[in-house]
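Notebook B, p. 112. Complex prediction, attempt 2.
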Amino acid sequence: MKRKKRKSATALCGWQKRLRNDWILYAMLLPILLWYLIFCYLPMGGITLAFRNYRYDMGLWRSPWVGLAHFRTMFSDAEFWRAFKNTLIFSAGKLLFHFPVPIFVAILLNEIRHPPVKKFFQTVFTFPHFISWVVLSGILINMFASNGIVNQLLGALGWGQVAPLMSLDSFRPFIWSSNIWKEFGWDSIIYMAALTSIDPQLYEAADIDGAGRLQKMLYITWPGIRGTVCVMLILQIGGIMSGASFDQIFNLYSSPVYPVADIIDTYVYRQSFMVGTNFGYTTAIGLLKSVIGVVMICGANRITARLGEDGLF
Amino acid sequence: MKQTRRFLALACCAVLALSMLAACGGTQSASGTPALGGASASSGRDAAQLIEVTVAIWGAEDALANPDDPLLRTLEEKTGVRLVAQNVTWDDADQKIQLWATNGQLPDIFAGDFVAQSFYGNWIEQGVIRALPDDLSAYPSLQEHMQMARAQAAARDGKLYMIPRTTYGDITYSVLDRNVVYRWDLAQAAGVTKEPETYAEFCDMIEAIVEKDPEGKQISGMTQALPQLIGGFIYPAAGIVDKKWVADENGRFVPSYFADRDALVTAMQLARDMYKSGVIERDIALAKLETSKEKFLKGQSAAMVFAWSGPAGLEQNIANDYDALYGEGRFLNDMRIARLYPAPDGNKYYFVDTEAWSESYISAGVDDEKMAAICRLFDYLYSDEGQRLVYCGIEGEDYDMVDGKVVMREGVDLTKKYTFKNINSNMADLAMWNPEYWDNEYPSTISAPYRALNEERYQDALQNGTLPEYYDSVMLLSTPLKDAFVYNTNDDLLQIMMGSDPVEQMVDELLANYESKGLTAMLDEVNAKAAELGITAK
């Protein structure tokens, strides 16, 4: 018993000692913690709205409780399930088609020997990230319009017209591919950073051993960035309920493609501002989305850890 | 050295913390409620006598940017009200107002098309908006204005919660709200010799233009200024007044859209045929005003659906640009506006919305003193003198009264002369839309040939058109199921028009979907409420 007490006292001393030694660092952390508290944790009080029927005259805290009524409405709402399904499909497509691209591009860029050429490609690939979806959607709509440049080119080649934004079959692939085009350069930066941390001596040793490019990629580069890939994968899975970017879908979709385009975010937007003002219902949808996100991120983290990689936490 | 580093680190922490706290705070004007127009005592009245009233109407900030604007100063002098902008734009107005309604930041007066929305009843019941005083006898012009049928239909327990913003002199004028403008010059070049008089002839004409492409510009079919306009051309083809409630053969009230399944099939089939044959251009669902306008100006669209302000409004909306490109007077020469075409029953129906699009609301946060000031403001704006000030300018400077009539002075352009009349703002239209767009007797800078187009269209509707009996008193009723039931005729039209399954099948699925959302139960509830209130079909 005495030993136990002594042990906790020692631990306390250690904690106090660390605080005393590094108090400046902790003090610098304080504003960040406050920021999180004010902007991330306190607003979570609004989650209670998912269990209330919002009334303008009673506000957030005094509106009447309705239990799980909004969730029951949600689960019986066909449009919600359509948006839910579309969200998952967009996420799955993103994971399948988008996720590997920046990794592949980073590895390829890493193989470029001449730094100016490497910089050139990096800049070209990264640039589209800085164009907002609002601007980009206008460009894409014009490009793929019936008399847009794409259809004019196809016409000149004697091919038929395409209308990816109007077609139930091609809307999703268009969203995936346009997102890849816009973001793969930016997303590859983190892998480029991971690649720079690989010890160049490993490559030199491999050269001496007579390893080819492909072998170096497989046995040095890939293991070097695998940890980063895992972290990014976990984050990606955690964001599975985001589907595609709201900005992207919102600016590119139209009612004829709602069946394949409407995601949870756009559905919530329409419910909140264009259909009615059932804020409790839309909060419930948001809460469900967050809960699924947390479950997914925890699950992915656990699986990653079991596979022997470092997880997020 | 160590102490200096510690001091610097501490200073950094303090600066970070302070800047964060500063960011959390803020003044009134930084929190989205800028107080433009309140900077100087601008009127003859003592500034202290003026009652500040915040207003959210599209582009209010632009109109109130100059507190010394003579029109604004006159308005202040006459009403004792200083208008303060709480800015909204056409893109964000509805969202901002909804958010302000939840956090108690609503301006004293705000405008929007909310009366037929599900939350209008909630706003009243939950104390978001305030009713006008029961006794309006002190404000005769306002009192007279509130006799409008729409205002009375939207009353709750005898109280008036919104002020309709007059758009037209009567409902028939709402035919001016949707205009299909087509390239008659190209139609002639394509071999068409007679202006179309039916939907079929119209389709043939557009097909001919697209097929012949007389100018070689890869012309496409009909486009529109916004995705929700095409219904105004399509639904009347089947006698559907999609924005109104009607009575069916049993005297039961029902939205016109749901009143007749066969009529809906007819309208949707027409849209599908027009789309498939290229009469309606392929990109129509993504239409945006500027891009569609540009295409039309370039000669790449055979026709375009315009909205608002009637054919007279075309002069400013597109004709001036067209004439600048192709020569003076070419627009009137090259274009025609589609007339009313008959539905299968032989009647010529037309687009019908409302004689007062959008309303002014007063926040529940307004106290009695401010309410009196607001009533004074609206009373003045509805008076002859107030209307003259807002739409004709200042007497002796901008216009003269001759034999009791306004005669505008040569070369006066109010929009350029007065900030209050800023073309990007609807502040001057707070009480009503400019009557120049429908009343040809009203002073206007719109040229006579364009005003004549308005009259022609109106007379077409008045003499040849059919206006089904409709019931705004039912449409504006509030019941729990009705408030929760939402249907979107524009989205439905685009989905079926561009769909690939047979139209009848899609319409039946659509109706079944609405049924699953409680259509019949909603109709039962509304009809029960209507019966309770003594509303019967004529």
